[in-house]
Design a protein that fits this description.
mainly alpha; 134 residues; Sufe protein. Chain: A; 51% helix
């Protein structure tokens, strides 16, 4: 997956329709999440579509998240959120300004509030996970 800065550079040059396509493609590129992990315990609360987020830790101590959604567009938004912290150490995840980084994409101008309302909950869950691993 490209870095969040590379994604933003590409996103910045696109028109509205291409931005939406790009977000959907990000979701399609996510590593598949096994159905067995799609449970109430891994479901992100407050999302308009079902979203599941499951953390793993690599042998080097980096956090890697598996994620999925019932909506292609929402899954793309999840992928964008994960691009800010995927495969970083728990300490780096806690130090990352995910909200500020995502603000550069102006998702609130391009997507309905239903599509973005779960982002704060995803971020909170990612931070809680990182805190548990530190």
């Amino acid at each position: 997956m490209a870095t969040i800065d590379e994604l933003h550079d590409e996103y910045d040059f696109l028109d509205f329709e291409d931005r939406i396509r790009m977000i959907v493609e990000l979701g399609r590129a996510l590593e598949p999440m096994p159905d067995a992990l799609k449970a109430d315990v891994t479901r992100v609360p407050g999302c308009s579509s079902s979203v599941w987020l499951y953390p793993t830790e690599s042998k080097t101590g980096r956090l890697h998240f598996l994620a999925d959604s019932t909506s292609e567009l929402t899954k793309g938004v999840v992928a964008l959120v994960l691009a800010t912290v995927q495969d970083h150490s728990p300490e780096d995840v806690l130090a990352t300004d995910m909200e500020g980084t995502l603000r550069r994409f102006a998702l609130d101008r391009h997507l309905t509030s239903k599509r973005t309302q779960g982002i704060p909950n995803m971020i909170a869950l990612i931070r809680e996970t990182a805190a548990r691993y530190t």
